[in-house]
Amino acid sequence: MEYIKDPMEIEKKSFEIITEELGEKTFPEREGKIIKRVIHTTADFQYGDITKINEYAIDSAIKALKEGCSIYTDTKMAMAGINKRVLKDLNSDIYCLVDDAEVSKEAKERGLTRSMVGMEKAVMDKRTKIFVIGNAPTALFQLCQFIDEGKVQPHLVVGVPVGFVGAKESKDELLKRKVPYITTVGRKGGSTVAAAIINALLYMTK
Amino acid sequence: MEYIKDPMEIEKKSFEIITEELGEKTFPEREGKIIKRVIHTTADFQYGDITKINEYAIDSAIKALKEGCSIYTDTKMAMAGINKRVLKDLNSDIYCLVDDAEVSKEAKERGLTRSMVGMEKAVMDKRTKIFVIGNAPTALFQLCQFIDEGKVQPHLVVGVPVGFVGAKESKDELLKRKVPYITTVGRKGGSTVAAAIINALLYMTK
User: Fold this and answer.
1) B42 interface with A at CB cutoff 8 Å
2) Rounded CA separation A164/B10 (Å)
3) Is the dihedral of CA A4, B184, A84, A202 positive or negative?
4) Nearest to A41 among B41, B44, B190 (CB)
5) Cα–Cα distance, A113 to A167 (Å, whole number)
6) Are the CB atoms for B76 and A76 separated by under 8 Å?
7) What's the confidence (pLDDT) of residue A180?
């Protein structure tokens, strides 16, 4: 079995293949870096069509990351996939909304998802905030509501819940909000997609 | 914004939609539970066609899980996505091949991926082993080689690396091996897919 073993070479070659297969479908440079990293993570070229990055998103995110911010994820998977070394260099911190015993207890008592309860706690953080929601539509609905109520002004919302119940609808709500956002319209998305988007932004800070 | 908030209800409704949209495409009961959970995790019905479960895989995996085994993942993301509560009830343990300072150091020195070096360490474990490879083709190639050399006899290989360089080829190699395996042919797969497969098996032990 002969195969490429060097991780850097594998990544470089992968991005070349993606660019080649996208063919005439091109993106502005920074948007392209994000979308190609999502395709790299999923091997699914549909993300070239469904990924929506609004006009404020990239500048706002890079500013927040460079100045140091708090990143909140809805799952431990999304948190696990984000490059901690680069985050640390930037003096940014990352937290998972559901990874907290108190949150679990309260969610059970109130019959809510842990991510909804975690979201309530996150909005109290006074630092610049980026929200990364790859799994739970309930967390994204809740965040949209807090935005409407003026309780939180995120510097970026990566809203890419995946699934069949509420995922599409929660992203449709995000699209109506005047906040910096990156989303994937329809049912597709997920924790790996969410992490890939944040990693693409992290690499742009360099 | 009206939406379903109860996680159990969301999951139940999701599986109903998946079954409905699969239409005349049906699977044997246990295979169906795995494949539908992968579709649930990705919102990608293509997994109904590309997921391959060999005849020994489910029995072998359930036996290993019920008796207590070691699960090795190639990424922290896959590890993060696997249900630890059920694993603990079963007296099974989970380890990540790359999450080790010694492995990092050695990989750098030898110019290899961390997952390849981690794999070398995993095969020394004397317990019953399940390998879960959702990202790194190099780890799956290495595992195939160790199987050929008689260094390891996994009770299950979940081999679902994603990507453009080596992913498809590494899975083609796995398909030729006489070991219990679950794979997704072609480029698609990933850490969320890998975790979904193990979770589906964990829920079948009950």
Assistant:
1) yes
2) 8
3) positive
4) B190
5) 14
6) no
7) 98
Q: How far is B54 from chain A (nearest CA, A)?
A: 22
Q: What CATH number is given to the structural domain containing B69?
A: 3.40.50.10230
Q: How many domains does chain A have?
A: 1
Domain of residue B77 covers 49-204
Token readout for B20 is 């409905």
Task: Give yes or no: A155 in active site.
Answer: no
Residue A162 touches partner B, C-beta closer than 8 Å = yes
In a domain, A151, yes or no: yes
- The chain A residue lying nearest B7, using CA atoms, is A113
The active-site residue out of B40, B52, B63, B177 is B40
Q: Using one digit for the tens of pLDDT, what is the confidence trace for B41-92?
A: 999 999 999 999 999 999 999 999 999 999 999 999 999 999 999 999 999 9
CB A130 within 8 A of CB A61: yes
Q: How crowded is residue A122: how many other Cβ atoms within 10 Å of its Cβ?
A: 23
Residue A36 lies in a domain: no
Residues of B within 8 A of A13 (CB-CB) are 164-165
Q: Which residue has the tokens 């190699």?
A: B173
Q: What is the ipTM of this complex?
A: 0.94
Q: Which of B3-12, B55-64, B123-132, B195-204 has the lowest mean pLDDT?
A: B3-12
Residue of A nearest to B169 (CA): A3
Q: Is residue B173 part of a domain?
A: yes
- Where residue A3 falls among pLDDT bands split at 50, 70, 90? confident
Is residue A187 domain-resident?
A: yes
CA distance A104 to B179: 39
* B63 CA: distance to closest CA in chain A (Å): 27
A46-69 b/e with 16+ CB inside 10 Å = b?
A: ebbebbbbbeebbebbbebbeeeb
- What is the DSSP annotation of B67-118? H--EEEESSHHHHHHS-HHHHHHTT-EEEETT--HHHHHHHHHHT--HHHHH
What share of chain B in percent tops pLDDT 90? 82
A69-77 average pLDDT score: 95
Contact with chain B for residue A183, Cβ under 8 A: no
Rounded (5°) CA angle A134-A138-A143:
85
